[in-house]
């Protein structure tokens, strides 16, 4: 019998070049190889190294996958209504800028259980994509089971000045089919376009 293809727990496609889920285990590696990943984004308390997870570290090295770590709060362990926010808005901003860069795609983004932390980042991405809050919250609870007041407040208050790559270096799906007028009048985001040298252009949306 051939070895099965087993995706990580809570695996799902967020957009054509972005997938999400739980911390990948060796049983998932064969499936992840089919995604031809260029980047993995780890939203975990501890950095993934050869010392603390030689299996995943070696998998990324073997497949030439850039493993990017964003440290999340060790202490945010409460459940339900008391659950805190284990990630900072500045971190989310950096993650989104990475996600929107075409050359770093395809990307697999994960937290330990594929729930709250990953869902917070995806929710902020959906705000950029002009989803309404009802749809954002519906997607959130699909993977995180519950959404509390802290989660809602973090998502609703997320406002940012995002550095966008030029159109040819940006993922194709971000505003596919939307009018430029709608994008330029985004209710909560400001965008700065960057040229090939990554120096800020004069154009601000």
From TrEMBL:
GO terms for cellular component: cytoplasm. Keywords: Cytoplasm, Hydrolase, Protein phosphatase, Stress response. The keyword Hydrolase applies. It comes from the Eukaryota. It holds the Pfam family Y_phosphatase2. One of its GO terms (molecular function) is protein tyrosine phosphatase activity. Its EC number is 3.1.3.48. It catalyses: O-phospho-L-tyrosyl-[protein] + H2O = L-tyrosyl-[protein] + phosphate. It is found in: Cytoplasm. Signal peptide: none annotated. InterPro entries: Prot-tyrosine_phosphatase-like (IPR029021), Siw14-like (IPR004861). Belongs to the protein-tyrosine phosphatase family. Putative tyrosine-protein phosphatase required for protection against superoxide stress. This is Putative tyrosine-protein phosphatase OCA1.
